[in-house]
Amino acid sequence: MKHAVTTGSAPTGRVNWKRFGLMMVPAGLVVGAFGFATASGALASSFVISGSNFKVTADKLEGEGFVQYGRTITPTGKGTVPVAVSGIAKAKITNMCQSVAVGPFALRLTAGDAGKPVSATNLVLDVEQLAGDAVFSDMQIGVDASTVSAAGKDIHSDTKGAFGQQAATVVITDLDQTAWSTTAGTFTLPNLKLGFGGSDNVCK
Amino acid sequence: MSASSAHASLAGFRHWRRTRPFWGGVFAVLAGVELIAIPYAPLAVSIHQGMPGVASWLAGAMLVAGGVLAWVHPVQRHFYGIITMLAALASFPSSNLGGFFLGLLLGVVGSGMIFAWSPGRDRSAETPGRDEIVPGLVS
User: Fold this and answer.
1) What pLDDT, on a 0 to 100 scale, did the predictor assign at position B67?
2) How much is the ipTM here?
3) CA distance B18 to A3
4) How far does A124 lie from chain B, in Å, by closest CA?
5) Quick check: B81 and A154 CB within 8 A?
6) The whole model's pTM is what?
7) What count of CB pairs under 8 Å joins A to B?
8) What is the pLDDT of residue B129?
9) B54/B47 Cα distance (integer angstroms)
10) Rounded CA gap, B125 and B29, in Å?
């Protein structure tokens, strides 16, 4: 690329900040509108998070179509971790709090604490640890994990003959869990708040 | 590599950087990488999830591609600037609230800088003046 110094056919240039500012006005308006629509629960968000474990707490989780089975995951640099895959076709979560440690800080997200619950569809969680008071209805324990179907035909294990369980509905109160990944088809987050704080900023 | 050729390649890189929307491209590529890195681990899960899982990759991939293309083909910077801007904005509902705002912010700033970059305004340029009269550059 030595010749590029001497030929110089392309002119050097710079950012025209006035034009940059003109571009930022509509972009800022769109971001503001998205933020407002998400916080008021009108716009559904999509979450796909994994690679480090995080904490989720909620006052109440009501789910329709629940399946659960075991599998192992291998997060980068963490070895093999056994998790319980929990799939819920439709979930309503009251007073949800989700926090993840990022170095010396903690990112904390809360939603569904102003009368309108968080709602999610096709929610799949890789759970490491779960505590709470659970009530299941129409429960089947010991179903082949590859044939569980309560949360839809897409959410089931790839391992034939593994242990699985499913239920028509699930209600968990005082939920406190540690999970490795959350994926959801849609996630509606009324009254969303997101912020960074010190490492003590985690959900309790 | 001799010291003089290292110096020449450094000067070559500086020239390369100054003749295209380099920093806008850097921010757009960083934004795309951040959007993909946050959900990273099981791509199989993303595919299993269908559209929402893939959407989180799509906005990031468009930002990386747009940023790189703005370097390769600076003449088309307005088009790439607008495409990366739309991808950055679309990441908000589709990908972890725009990678928890960071990817969204980098993408919006980067695409704005790609769009607003213009050649021939640098005082140290060998051809000072309006970009419109620079031969071979129609935009």
Assistant:
1) 95
2) 0.73
3) 15
4) 9
5) no
6) 0.66
7) 166
8) 47
9) 6
10) 27
